[in-house]
Specification:
This protein is mainly alpha-helical and about 130 residues long. It is built from 5 helices and no strands. The chain has one domain. Helix 1 runs antiparallel to helix 3, helix 1 packs parallel to helix 4 and helix 1 crosses helix 5. The protein is globular.
Length: about 130
């Protein structure tokens, strides 16, 4: 029998998995939005190789598949004694989100210039997708 406290801990860890995966999806959406300059911006050598080999579509597809696999593994970890590792993954993903959203190479994005930030571009991407 699962106690109420154990259930609430599991829900907390499942929310951590949700946020980690959401940041990964956000990263992949930015790859689609910034397709034109992605090869020069991508910092991961494996990602660069995938883009050079099969283009951005291969890169985005591989990232989506690995995100799904990671989500399934993370959900399994929620119910193990190693679930505290998910907190560490969340911390890294939060730093990735900050880097992707507020750092533009040599400078930080001006958050008040809404039309130039990656977050606004993601919003605009989905808005245009829904309106078309």
């Amino acid at each position: 029998m699962i106690t109420k406290s154990k259930m609430s801990i599991n829900i907390t860890y499942l929310l951590i998995v949700f946020f980690v995966c959401s940041i990964s999806v956000y990263d992949n959406i930015l790859n689609v939005i910034y397709t034109d300059g992605l090869l020069t911006r991508e910092k991961n050598p494996v990602g660069t190789w995938l883009i050079e080999t099969g283009g951005v579509s291969l890169f985005v597809t591989i990232k989506a598949i690995t995100t799904i696999i990671a989500a399934l593994l993370a959900i399994r970890i929620v119910y193990s004694k190693y679930r505290i590792a998910l907190v560490v993954v969340l911390i890294f993903q939060v730093f990735l989100f900050i880097y992707l959203s507020f750092y533009g190479g040599e400078m930080f994005y001006d958050v008040l210039s809404y039309d130039e930030t990656p977050m606004y571009n993601v919003y605009e991407f989905y808005y245009n997708l829904l309106m078309d």
